[in-house]
Amino acid sequence: MQKMLSAAVRHTARSVRTCSSYVNQARYVFDLKENDDTCRQALKSGSFYLFHNLSPLIRKSENTFYTPAVSGPDLLQVLGSCGKDKLSLEDSVLLGCSESCVAEFALDLGSLEKSAIEQELSGKFTEIRNAIAKINGKMDAENASARSLLQWHDSHQYCSKSGKPTTKNVSGSKRVCHVNGLIYYPQMSPVVITLVSCKNRCLLAHQENFPAGMYTALAGYCEIGETLEETIRREIAEEVGLVVDTVRYSGSQHWPFPGSSLMLACQATVKDDKLDINRAEIEDARWFTLEEVTEALQMKTLPSKLPDGTLPVWVPPKFAIAHHLIQEWVQEQKALNGS
Fold first, then answer.
1. Which pLDDT belongs to residue 20?
2. Do residues 251 and 321 lie in contact, with contact meaning Cβ atoms separated by under 8 Å?
3. What is the pTM of this model?
């Protein structure tokens, strides 16, 4: 009995311990992913970001919108009044932990009646792009990761080899087919997004499925066997008929639309600016001066038509890495010009 009590005390201490460093946080999350019992215990005191068919819950406080983190006990009360028999805390997926090592999860309540949950939680489930627009144009990591993980689990419920159902572990870090032992891990697709420049101009493109007037950097999925640089050279040759001279890595971003992508942002230069646009890939591409790009950055998302009936050029909003890639080029051009 004494051994059992000691083990229980150690287990509880491990689940509520405080973290003194990023290393401790990372190792605690690793423990949650690998140990079902530890994760199951953490669910009781964890915090939850809630979704309904991949739309996050947002609340309004005065004039500010935010995504609330609901505590485990509060969530259990909601499930009890709205359909506990249909969902449990173990249907959630692990996102990470706070600085004080409170485990953070995401749970999709799509099987429950939406209006009843919204009333219980004093919030609204909002399509994620609209939610981002309301939350000061920011896409926090929790919402992006949560949406991608929830979507991945929904689309990987069956084994691709046996056709039998897969089972997720408590944290949701993997799914297992118990017929053949295959393990499936959540994945992201690597995508390069590249701002091409030639001397003092940069290239922006418009695709048919873009909102009217929006131009952005060129982007494309990495193919199997390619390096980052090879993907960039191929994509730019395919889409606009240019030969890349230099490539410079700029940054990266997880992108949850439409599935889950890792956006790898780069700056590239070309020596020849003659375009040969592949209309099967993009609708239009143009060279823009520093003044034109600066003006486009100042435009609001979905701007109104100008007095002459035309729509001004605008670029992706600030939460997209494309915006920062374009902004980076502008700052570098200004530095070269001494302004």
1. 61
2. yes
3. 0.86
